[in-house]
Write a structure and sequence with these properties.
Elements (H helix, E strand, L loop, with lengths): L1 E3 L4 H4 L4 E12 L2 E10 L3 E6 L8 E11 L2 E17 L2 E11 L1 H18 L1
Antiparallel strand pairs: 1-6, 2-3, 2-5, 3-4, 4-7, 5-6, 6-7
Length: 120
């Protein structure tokens, strides 16, 4: 079953880049779930997890990226679960970023440029 909520056409068109990265989401205080990132864009993230989570759940996310070799940066942001889809490998969660510091936005865009160059 697929649950979808609004995503503007502009955000929907944001290029997505494959990632394979372990991610921890905080759903509420002291409730964490483990997931694996599948793709990333400037507006959100698609991940797979064993946990079924309600759409529109607010989340807190920390994602470590390496926009420059040998330089890691931890992006901290808030968002919500915009989409939940049951799949053969678990639940695919579409995360929409709703709040991110300007510095983290810049680093995310640098990292996306690196992914774009690698993935052509």
């Amino acid at each position: 079953m697929v649950y979808s909520f609004f995503m503007s056409k502009e955000k929907e068109r944001a290029p997505r880049f494959r990632i394979e990265q372990a991610i921890t989401l905080e759903l509420t205080r002291e409730r964490f779930i483990q997931a694996e990132g599948l793709n990333l864009s400037e507006s959100g993230l698609l991940m797979v997890t064993d946990s079924d989570v309600e759409p529109m759940t607010n989340i807190y996310l920390m994602l470590t990226v390496s926009p420059v070799e040998d330089r890691n940066h931890q992006i901290i942001c808030e968002g919500y679960i915009a989409r939940v889809e049951k799949a053969s490998d678990g639940y695919h969660l579409g995360i929409h970023f709703s709040s991110m510091e300007d510095e983290d936005k810049l680093v995310l865009n640098e990292y996306l440029a690196v992914l774009a160059a690698k993935q052509g």
